[in-house]
């Protein structure tokens, strides 16, 4: 290190031009005209063309891995009886409700097994029997939240279920 060299201080945001060297102590002047004294081991030479010939390689930002299930559209279960069986007129009302409840429980188990987060259950508006069965079944389940899809409770024909 000699007079006129540019230096930077290690571990500080301070640099300047050497004005004098007294043994191990280097005196330099910063860009504002202040003088500073540091031992030689606390200074590094500031060579402006040092990094000129080094090629900078910009790496791509790593992508956060998101499971495919996260992007999957929510599962929709339509409990209208004609969608569940081939001959809906062959069943009485008790059998219909029992089959619909079994289908609901199977789909909830499927969602849990496959770690799905959301399920929409379409029960229709009707006389409310199917809706009551759906709500009673959901209330008996753990680790899930459910709410009407529409704001007005009596106009909603669907329930949204979110699994924990």
Automatic annotation (TrEMBL):
InterPro entries referenced in this protein's UniProt entry, alphabetically: Smr_dom, Smr_dom_sf
Gene3D superfamilies, sorted: 3.30.1370.110
Domain Smr: 102-164
Source organism of the structure: Chryseobacterium tagetis
One Pfam entry name: Smr
Superkingdom of the source species: Bacteria
Protein's name according to its UniProt entry: Smr/MutS family protein
